[in-house]
TrEMBL record:
Organism whose genome encodes this protein: Strongylocentrotus purpuratus
CDD domains per UniProt: GT29_ST6GALNAC3_4_5_6
Subcellular location: Golgi apparatus membrane
Biased composition (Basic and acidic residues): 60-69
Name of the featured protein: Uncharacterized protein
Length: 394
């Protein structure tokens, strides 16, 4: 009798536990569902009688809709962070640190959109989407790899809705593209490519000038024409190998960049350098995209490559002016277009591209880089090509 009672109790116990056990197995084996993140839109308002910025906030779910800023919000295609705090309804943004904390002290990321800061809590990666087509590395939007000459704790803060990426190619000669280029909110140029005397074809406006360690001295010697109005850049960003960028007085390129920073800071020009982490990132991207190690393949990344890496970090849309397709020289073997638009009697573009592509060492893989840019053009940020006009077909 006693054994029968215990038997019934065990049957009841297991009967109650079995559904719980099965439910637990199903629950823990289920793919975790992503949390719908909170979105906070912060419209910045400039009061005519004040120099400080105030903020208003609104909330929505992350469904692709961004709350409209109030009519008095500043409308701008480029936003540059300032070293100050912006406070609103239980929201505090440290624009110097590039992070935000809400009332719950959750750190979230910031995006700039048409003059309003859109702050969102980024969800975890959805493992069910691993099979989808490769998209742009989120790290391209991390600007902490561009370090201020003035203070190494500060880094580049700038965002542009549309950018004109102006190559130095002779393809731009005779295009009369200058007015169109200058109409872009941000114009990005390279090395010591001048605007004076070429305004009709290349424009005169400059927002960012990306300079290689090998060209920084040329920029310094021509600083009166390159770094003063018209065409004075807002930002000068210098890249180079570690031995050229040392901050202990032994880095030749860094020393010249620091000299330019000291001379032109009063004119509003901010000078930054690629950190060695960012240079290594550019190398890593090249290897991922081409399957070739940059060093073992005996090549140097071009300033065009570093400029595209930077452009993808600060631009929502990029129009590249004066860049040919990777097979242009095969289709136009007798092309006489100069390598640089400002050196009409210098090297020809195709001979420069071909010789560098075949070089066993110390060569730029110009055509290989262009094939990568073509693939990137189908990702975000969107990239298009003008003068010559073409789009990626691969």
């Amino acid at each position: 009798m006693l054994n029968q009672r215990w038997t019934r109790q065990w049957v009841i116990f297991f009967g109650l536990c079995l559904p719980i056990f099965i439910t637990s197995i199903l629950y823990f084996n289920e793919t975790p569902k992503l949390r719908v993140p909170k979105v906070v839109a912060i419209g910045l308002h400039q009061h005519p009688s004040q120099n400080n910025l105030t903020a208003s906030t609104s909330h929505s779910t992350h469904d692709g809709r961004t709350p409209e800023p109030k009519p008095e919000a500043i409308k701008s295609d480029m936003f540059i962070f300032s070293k100050q705090f912006v406070n609103g309804n239980n929201v505090s943004i440290d624009s110097g640190g590039g992070r935000m904390k809400d009332a719950g002290n959750e750190t979230v990321s910031m995006v700039i959109n048409n003059g309003a800061m859109v702050v969102e809590d980024v969800p975890a990666k959805d493992p069910s989407k691993d099979h989808e087509e490769h998209v742009a590395d989120p790290a391209v939007k991390d600007l902490s790899g561009y370090v201020s000459i003035v203070n190494a704790k500060n880094h580049l803060y700038v965002n542009c809705t549309k950018c004109a990426y102006v190559s130095s190619s002779g393809q731009l000669l005779g295009t009369n593209a200058g007015e169109l280029i200058d109409s872009y909110p941000c114009v990005i140029r390279m090395n010591n490519a001048p605007t004076k005397g070429f305004e009709a074809d290349v424009g005169s406006k400059t927002t960012v000038r990306v300079v290689a360690h090998s060209a920084i001295r040329q920029v310094h010697s021509r600083r009166s024409s390159l770094l003063k109005d018209p065409g004075q850049p807002r930002f000068l960003v210098v890249w180079g190998p570690e031995h050229q960028m040392k901050t202990d007085g032994k880095g030749g390129a860094y020393n010249v960049a620091a000299s330019l920073s000291k001379e032109f800071s009063k004119d509003g020009i901010q000078v930054f350098v690629f950190s060695q982490r960012q240079v290594a990132y550019a190398d890593r991207v090249f290897e991922i995209e081409t399957g070739k190690n940059r060093i073992s393949s005996g090549s140097w990344l071009s300033t065009g490559w570093f400029t595209m890496i930077l452009s993808r970090g600060i631009c929502e849309e990029i129009t590249v002016f004066g860049m040919v397709t990777e097979d242009y020289c095969k289709k136009n073997p007798t092309s006489k277009v100069p390598y640089h638009y400002y050196q009409a009697s210098g090297s020809k573009e195709c001979s420069m591209y071909t010789s560098n592509e075949k070089a066993k060492k110390n060569g730029h893989r110009f055509m290989t880089e262009k094939s990568v840019f073509a693939r990137w053009s189908k990702q975000w940020p969107w990239i298009s090509f003008r003068y010559p006009d073409w789009s990626a077909t691969k």
